[in-house]
Design brief:
- This protein has 335 residues and is mainly alpha-helical.
- It folds into two domains: 5-74, Arc Repressor Mutant, subunit A, CATH 1.10.10.60; 85-325, no CATH class.
- Helices cover 47% and strands 8% of the residues.
- The strands form two sheets. A three-stranded antiparallel sheet has the order 3-5-4. A two-stranded antiparallel ribbon has the order 1-2.
- Helix 3 (50-56) crosses helix 4 (63-74) and helix 14 crosses helix 15 (255-268).
- The chain is elongated.
- The two termini are 29 Å apart.
- The relative contact order is 0.09.
- It binds a DNA duplex (21 and 21 nucleotides) through residues 1-3, 11-16, 27-30, 49-51, 63-65, 67-69, 71-73, 100-103, 114-116, 118-120, 122-123, 126-127, 130.
Length: 335
Amino acid sequence: MRKPDQCEKEKGCNNNMVNKGMMKTRKGLWSPEEDEKLMNYMLRNGHGCWTDIARNAGLQRCGKSCRLRWINYLRPDLKRGAFSPQEQDIIIHLHSVLGNRWSQIAARLPGRTDNEIKNFWNSMIKKRLKTNKSDVSTISQNDSIGDFCVDASREIIREHGMFMSIHDHEIMINCMDSSLTSTTTTSSSITNNLMFMNGHDQFDHLPPLVLDKINCDSNGGSSLLNISSCLDQGVYGDVLEVPYMFNMVNDNTNPELGNRVIEEINANATFDHHELDNKTTHHVNHHFNGGSDGDIKVEEVVGFGNHWQGESYRIGEWDLEGFFANVSSIPYLDF
DNA sequence: AAAACTATCAACCGCTCCGGG
DNA sequence: ACCCGGAGCGGTTGATAGTTT
């Protein structure tokens, strides 16, 4: 924690008055009096321009500092205390999908802040780095820290016995974490698993990850997620639905649910259209839902690279609201 | 008992994005 | 089209509490 102090030049705060030297702002820890002032003001007046809030609440703080204090500490809906095991699992899983997008992860954990989650994750990684010191020393020159973190993430998931198979986990990491340019051997298998289906209207606009799941082989492939965990713990948001949804499709233990999801997809899916870079052509006989629903020809193999970084692939663009509005049985997180 | 070490977490910093003028 | 300011994000810092030596 930092000592409260005064600063004349408020670095990092672009408060107009501060920059003009019209006002000295405090930095460092918030006093109880400051907390009370901000809390009272926010409860009375609600959100607005943070610079105005800082001024009107009688605080010698920049708006940015007020915002941070409110979001991370004073907000009434904040959850206190340590993360529950479920929350930890969700964080680990979401991180494997989203990477260091703390705000997006926090958005899926009600009552938790991005700062909290970031701190939790960093301390967890530190612990792991300590326990795996030998592993760290074996990172080759060609390996990036990113690769190492991905490995660590995989290992965490393996230990926790969580949702995904390693294969699927790799796919999701590589698809969704735009910061990674993995050079691991998984890339080629990922390439071979990203399929783009032509000739079937309802699949024309599906992102490759979805198509990959549809295309899982008729022997069952690898089940993406544990369906019972999914339903017990609740999952929502604009990122996870797709894999969870397709696990439902592929879940042999609950064919009824799978069929229902398929129906919902056919009826409601309105995925954004993405232009895909087609590199090679493959023809794969697809056995949807164990092959009982007929074959689907996969015309194109989508090359894997930095697609997810560009305009075409951005997390959160999949419009599944319509779908989920109609799948009322999927619960929301609320620990 | 005290020094050293470690974990936690509040807060800062620099940056990007976006909307308004 | 450009500039400016506010909001928000992720990385980092550093104080403090707890633990170990």
